[in-house]
Design brief:
The structure is a homodimer of 226-residue chains. Chain A has 226 residues and is α/β, with parallel strands linked by helices. Chain A has two domains: 118 residues, Rossmann fold; 96 residues, Arc Repressor Mutant, subunit A (Orthogonal Bundle), CATH 1.10.10.10. Helices cover 43% and strands 21% of the residues of chain A. Chain A is built from eight helices and twelve strands. Chain A has a five-stranded parallel β-sheet, with helices on both faces. In chain A, a hairpin with a 2-residue loop joins β8 and β9. In chain A, α2 runs parallel beside α3 and α6 packs across α8. The longest helix of chain A has 19 residues. The two termini of chain A are 22 Å apart. Chains A and B meet through α4 and α5 of A and α4 and α5 of B. Chain B binds a DNA duplex (30 and 30 nucleotides) through α8. Chains A, B: InterPro entries: CheY-like_superfamily, OmpR/PhoB-type_DNA-bd, Sig_transdc_resp-reg_receiver, WalR-like, WH-like_DNA-bd_sf.
Chain lengths: 226, 226
DNA sequence: ATCCGCGTTGACGGGTTCTTGACGGCCGGG
DNA sequence: CCCGGCCGTCAAGAACCCGTCAACGCGGAT
């Protein structure tokens, strides 16, 4: 879950942000002055900071500098000042974005999504690794490990395994599997599935004839069981 | 030198930006419609894109999507529309920032600096030097050492190696590799990869015919193993 | 003008992967 | 009891992909 630190001394702004962010599945931390903001950031390790420049105790740029000393977390500045010089100052101090009050909640949320997307896609993985008792699937690296050694899969084998793993625990209809791996024209070639599921089991299951993770649901489809 | 691609159909805006950017030491590319923008981005490899949404040929979000298909270069959107929905749409399509016209040049430049700073520091963090049993890659210095002597790589060879090393351990699809090194138009020229991977292996692998670090995954792509 | 480095393109051999057919086991219904 | 689906297994030829070598053209440097 994405963690947002909201720093503002106006209670109604904090409340509005907290409600809107929480409703969209964000975890929200708050602080109402600069000192508390630095403390909260250090302890809570937010994924993004929304920072009002008009704080009671310290200048906003000092908060930015304080954060930038040790973290590259995205900072979105809120401010009532529309003056261009203020924006330049904040951005050059290390802020990532600058939104003037009064702001549209939709826009702020969109800018927040953009900031989070940037930082997570460049930092890389969101933990796409699935483990079972006998093998491990790494979706991002497209790797499969069994007993700490890599198992080589062909493109088709990987395609099937990926669809099943992404629907972990759920039943995937044969038609759906065929369409996603071979394309819509092959929706009835159920024989392909039999051949490739057998290959996958031979490579991954401890006892291929008695599968424990790549399960057949007769007449319906297949299911991956972690 | 930082390279900026300016996309706008209004000549006076392009001129103003070109002058201001050049005066601050940026290298400036320009395009006046969406098609030219995608072409210029593929060929010129800018470090940041300034994109006007009101282009004559295609919708601005399509240009964003076209870029995001193969690059994570920062995109700063310019637009005369102040409507919140437009901003949300552009940001969610993959833009990094949104500035409404008329804009202050100081502010735009500050946002541009912020965007470039972000992309260079986040890309540069982590270890810029990657070592394997037989050679060492220095991403920052663009150098490769083998047995303590420098190995000379051509620009294309380096481009491939860099993409692979930045995705260390992960499989990189042939399409992705081609798009990032040669540009989106070359996404199917898999033969290029075979030729260049062979050259890289000849230069870097102790036993080129039995590669241990530059691995082929048939039908899928290539992988760098440290 | 000539040479050299580099990117591009074609041809070919060898290996892997996909497709397809055949066969047998299991199960429920006629 | 027999039969028709459905599934798993095996094997073989076709299709595809990869690595390698070599030739060509272009541009910059000598």
């Amino acid at each position: 879950m994405t963690k947002v630190l909201v720093v503002d001394d106006e209670p109604q702004i904090v409340r509005a942000l907290r409600i809107n962010l929480a409703a969209r599945g964000y975890q929200v931390l708050t602080a109402h002055d600069g000192a508390a903001a630095l403390k909260a950031a250090a302890e809570g390790r937010p994924d993004v900071v929304v920072l009002d420049l008009g704080l009671p105790d310290v200048d906003g740029t000092e908060v930015i500098a304080g954060l930038r000393g040790w973290t590259t977390v995205p900072i979105i500045v809120l401010s009532a000042r529309t003056d261009s010089a203020d924006k330049v100052e904040a951005l050059d101090a290390g802020a990532d974005d600058y939104v003037t009050k009064p702001f549209g909640m939709d826009e702020l949320l969109a800018r927040l999504r953009a900031a989070v997307r940037r930082s997570t896609t460049s930092a890389g993985d969101g933990e796409p690794v699935v483990k079972t008792a006998s093998f491990t699937v790494d979706l991002a690296a497209k790797k499969v490990l069994r007993d700490d050694t890599e198992v080589h899969l062909t493109p088709t084998e990987w395609g099937i395994l990926e669809v099943l793993v992404r629907n972990s625990g759920r039943l995937v209809a044969q038609k759906q599997l065929l369409k996603e791996v071979w394309g819509p024209a092959y929706a009835t070639e159920t024989h392909y599935l039999r051949v490739y599921l057998a290959q996958l089991r031979r490579k991954l299951e401890p006892e291929p004839s008695r599968p424990r993770h790549l399960i057949t649901e007769p007449g319906m489809g297949y299911r991956f069981e972690p």
